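This protein record is not my work; I was only asked to verify it. Would you go through it and say whether the fold makes sense for this chain? Here is the record exactly as it was handed to me.
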Amino acid sequence: MVSDRTNVEALRIYCFFLLARENDPELFAEKFDELQSALRQTEGRNSDLIYNISRLFARFCGRNKDVVNKTLQLLEIAMMLQPDNAAYIAE
C-alpha cells in the first residue's frame, strides 16, 4: 500500500519530469492539479512543504504563464497558513 506522503512525492517527481524533460503542458497541468489535491488532503497544514513545491516549479517553468499561475495558487495557500513569513511574501 502506498502512503499518502509517498503519493505526494511521486506526483511531485512526475510533474517535475513532465515540466523539465517532456515539455507536455497539458499533461503537466492535469498532474499538477492532482498534486495540489493530494497536498491539500494529506499535507494541508504543512506550509513549508507547500512553499517548497511551489518554489521548485516556479524556478523551472521557463516563464510559462500557466505554470506560474499554478505555482502562485500553491504559494497563496502557504501564505494563508503563515501570513507573516517573509520568505513566502518575497517569493
Q: What stands out?
A: The first helix runs from residue 4 to 22. Helices lie at 4-22, 25-43, 47-60, 65-81, 86-90. The chain has five helices and no strands. The chain has one domain: 4-90.
